[in-house]
Amino acid sequence: MKHYITYLLLASALGYGHTVQAHSAPTSTAQSTSTRLTGTVLDEANKQPVPFATVALLPPTGDKPVAGAACDEKGSFVLTAPAGTYRLVVSFVGYTSRTETVTLGATAKDMGQLTLAATSQKLGEVTVVGEKPLVEARPDRIVYNAEADATNTGGTASDVLRKTPLLNVDADGNVQLRGSSNLRVLINNKPSAILAGNLAEALKQIPADQIKAVEVLTTPSAKYDAEGTGGVVNIVLKKNSLQGVNGRVGVAVGNRNQNLNGALNARRGKVGFTSSLSGFYNQYPGRSNSSRTDYLDGAIGQLTQNTENKSRGGGGFGKVGLTFDPTEQSGFTLDFTGNAYHSVNDQDLFNEYRVLPQLEQYNSLDTLYTRDIRQRTPSRNYDVSAGYTRTFKDQPRREWSVLGQHSVSRSRQNYTLDQFRAPELVENGNPLEYQERSENLALNRETTIQTDYVHPFKGKTTLETGAKAILRQVNSDYDLDTLRTGQQTDFARNDLRSNAFDYRQNVLAAYGSLGFSLGKKYSFTLGTRAEYTDIKGEFVGENGRFRNDYLNVLPTLSATRNLKKDGQTLGLTYARRIQRPQIYFLNPYVNQTDPRNISYGNPELRPELTQNLDVSYNTYSEKSSLTLSLYGRRTNNSIESVLTYNDTLARSESTFQNIANSSTIGSNLYASVRPVKGLQIGGNVDLNYVHLKSVALNRTSSRFLYNVSANSSYKFKEKYTAQFYAGYYAGWVQLQSRNSGYYYYSLGLKRTFLNDKADLTLNANTFLQSGINFRNTTTTPNFVSRSNFFSYQRSVRLSFSYRFGKVDSGAPQRRRRSIQNNDSKSGSSGQQGG
Predict the structure, then answer these.
(1) CA–CA separation, 475 vs 602, rounded Å?
(2) Element housing 815 (H / E)
(3) CA 30 → CA 21, 22, 469, 673, distances in Å?
(4) 557-587: per-residue pLDDT in tens?
(5) Please, are residues 486 and 421 in contact by the beta-carbon 8 Å criterion?
(6) I need a labelling partner for 588 at 20 to 30 A (CA). Which of 163, 194, 439, 626 fits?
């Protein structure tokens, strides 16, 4: 029986999300032709599929499986074995196992519908912990099971994403997928107001203890919004749907992160309740130095800047969810997620600009001063969503759903600065020569309504259709006051740098997707999505209005072939996708906290269109799994960051333009192995070549990029788990800039006690040095700049968590639809939403 249980665990872990044929055990009839056995596993009460149930074919006596597999998401399975008589065992967590006697002959045999009855066993005050692999390679995504990684305890979402395969997160929190920043980050498959503003800051607000997994989708299907040319990143928060009352409390202390968190869940009969709440405080100090050489007419300008940063922030994050299932075929959901956050960033800036030789026309450019800058960003964000799902008893795979969501994000981006002259330049004893204060009130509102319908046909053919409306309204009201010492008695409004910007974006979409099989080896999904976008923008003042609209038809294709050898598949996916610029790219607000380097958005940006192609190979065995993919991406009209030079003011100006064509080709390999009991080792390698070409700038930029990561977990003495994670990212390239790489590593040791209800975890991250240097080089015809940012990364955390409550293993969790607004180009460390 031991072999049987081990086989089922491996099939469930490695074959999750895909019907996989297992290796047959050697028999005396190994040379004979195998017979195909098929069937579908359903819930006995509601006749719904039981996704990923495990099935095993055993001999009449003994416990060593002849074949085994995990069902696909529709409950279907396929096994092959030589002719003979066997025992077919079907099982899944929360159900009573079922055993059937099966006789295989020369022809294929279909078991039809096999039902499982839900168990009602009391589990008492215990915690059921499944041993998941740290990383899973599924047919359409890579899944990083963050809850299985002890080194995440007490950290933030930014720490979790940094360790997710295929993703890069730099010191500022900017996220890239396979070298592309054109991606969409979701929470529980939904857009969130929490992520609508500054993405880098938002990722620091989500505690790692509340994250179950991170899913990376490189080529989403037609049912997803046709955005995110680089892909979609979905942060899955923890949930609990078991009958009974249970919860957890936790606390973490460290030199960079501290948090207090808890959760309470309850379910009685048809009604379920989930909740979680956390308070946190983070601090991220750093320092930077930069130099820039300007090529002036007959002279050279040299800019030197040194900055000390101290960034810190705190707040709370919480969510509440309600479910109500009045009948076996209908269910309602209501969810609320919100946060309040206040961040403060203090900067001490030293600025010196010199022009050589000293020509009279450039005398006004020479400057020497220091600035004390304080930026405050209080924000409040929330999402409210509701849904209804209807299934049909006579057709298990038939489903209809209606969903709605309303999100609000409100933030104030305030800063004040005091500028001091160099002591040798002070004439009247007062070094304060200039003051500035600015406030940007940003308000984002988004309403989404969608409906989806799934209709099954004979065999495994399925039609999915849906329609959706997304209504966005963004307001940005910004103003700036200045005061020059000795010239003014009070602050005065700067009208050139103050305005109000209103932006509306409405998206109407419809899609259709057909999934079917050809014979025993091939399965296909063909889909098409049509999206109409209507954009309106308005500034206060004359000539401040603009409007744009466009219609896009975006096809998708997915094909899978089961190879002759069991457990091996080939896959091909193609998608044409669109990238709309979000408000971060459009907002014309001018950031002049550093007058030598300013930035602003471009309201005239148009969307990108991208072709994606991905070929993959998957295989697994009892102790190992491997996924290899080759991919290509081509983007026309690419939105790129562009720096220009203002020679009158001797400053660089950064904005965004549709100014380049971008091409990427690459390969990705993920492998995992369990060489001995209790030890798991995994690794990821991603290699790609990026080529950018801009006719307008008469410039090309290309680079070979790579990132590698490794992870391992070892469980010893039953109560102890040691884990290790390390990664290196070789940097990335932009049209005018190149960035250096960085590395990351962490160690964790977890001790479980109090009858497996409590954990004590010690984590150490990047502990052999105090921090990491991030270097950037930018080259234009008018200047060359080099910067170095040192980010303090060393951190140590001690975390404690305690689980409590009694649960029943009642009916399994109902499958529920959710909104997925992954349709707009996200900002990086700047403003996503206004």
Answers:
(1) 15
(2) none
(3) 16, 15, 57, 27
(4) 989 888 866 568 888 989 888 888 776 787 7
(5) no
(6) 194
